[in-house]
Amino acid sequence: MGWNPRWSALVSQVTTKSSKPLPKTLPGVVCAQRVRCGKPGCRCADGQGHLAYYRFWREGGRLRKCYVRRADLAAVQAACEARQRERGALTEAWQQWRSLAAVVREVSR
Predict the structure, then answer these.
(1) What is the H or E stretch that residue 87 is in?
(2) So where are the chain's domains?
């Protein structure tokens, strides 16, 4: 599966500084990572790096990573959690459907 144009739109909504609203759900999770800024006199050069937030998701078998601004952090986390809840509900619905289908097959025999 290649790059989906729909994901380009979602990523651009998350990473741009526009006032467009974030999508209601996003795939993946938001994780904090320590990064080094590269400035020679910065405290991160010797000790711990700066705390930065990234959204990770799988697409076409590859792990993708996208920087999340602190201003967008709560909204992106909420969108990712909403996606996880939706996927959980969908999985549960499919399990119920499979069990009902099995009962119908048993009854029809």
Answers:
(1) helix 73-108
(2) 5-15+23-82
Question: Mapping DSSP to helix (H, G, I), strand (E, B) and coil, where does residue 49 land?
Answer: coil
Cα 27 to Cα 6: distance, rounded to the nearest angstrom: 12
> Using an 8 Å Cβ cutoff, are 80 and 28 in contact?
yes
User: How remote is the C-alpha of 1 from its chain's centroid?
Assistant: 18
Residue 10's alpha-carbon distances to 19, 50, 91, 94, in angstroms, are 14, 26, 24, 27
pLDDT 10s digits, 30-47: 999 998 888 888 888 887
Start-to-end CA distance of the chain, whole Å, equals 40
Q: Taken in order 80, 37, 71, 18, is the CA torsion positive or negative?
A: negative
Quote the CA–CA distance of 53 and 90 in Å, as a whole number: 28
